[in-house]
Amino acid sequence: MREILWISLGAIFGANLRYGIARLTGRLYPHPFPLGTLLINITGSFLLGVFFMWARTRLDLDPRWRLLIAVGFCGGYTTFSAFAWETMDLANQGRWGLAALNIAASNILGLAAVFAGAYMSQKIFTS
């Protein structure tokens, strides 16, 4: 139960920061390209990379930090950061085929799923 509290605490800050950055970016740079989301995905991925590499060198790191920062904050801030880390981890293990599959499958299937969900909801809710 305490794990859930650590995750939730991090997620509160991550999700609210994502919301604030997206709104601010939209106001400062009004453009149809989702610059705020891109900025969030890049900074979230950077933060997760820094955290995990730092955590690997700290054998005495309390596991609650991983729950708070990696799962909670970064998960609330962006799930793209997990995708980016896992893809890099596969590549670092020399599993280039799986890394490429993860990139292709996540992008193609993710885009297909959002189109399918939008189409399905349009048919259900506008009929």
Show the helix and strand layout.
Elements: H1 2-28, H2 35-57, H3 63-77, H4 80-92, H5 96-125
Structural class: mainly alpha
SSE ordering: HHHHH
Strand segment tally: 0
Number of helical segments?
Answer: 5
Helix content: over 70%
Unreliable stretches: none
* Major sheet summary line: none
Query: What general outline do the C-alpha atoms trace?
Result: globular
The percentage of residues in β strands lies in under 5%
Walkthrough of the structure:
It is a single chain. The protein is an all-alpha fold and 127 residues long. Helices cover 85% and strands 0% of the residues. The chain is built from five helices and no strands. It has helices spanning 2-28, 35-57, 63-77, 80-92, 96-125. The longest helix has 30 residues, at 96-125. It is globular and about 55 Å long. The mean pLDDT is 89.
Task: Give a quick precis of the structure.
By secondary structure, the chain is mainly α. Helices cover 85% and strands 0% of the residues.
Kindly list the characteristics that best describe this protein.
127 residues, mainly alpha, globular
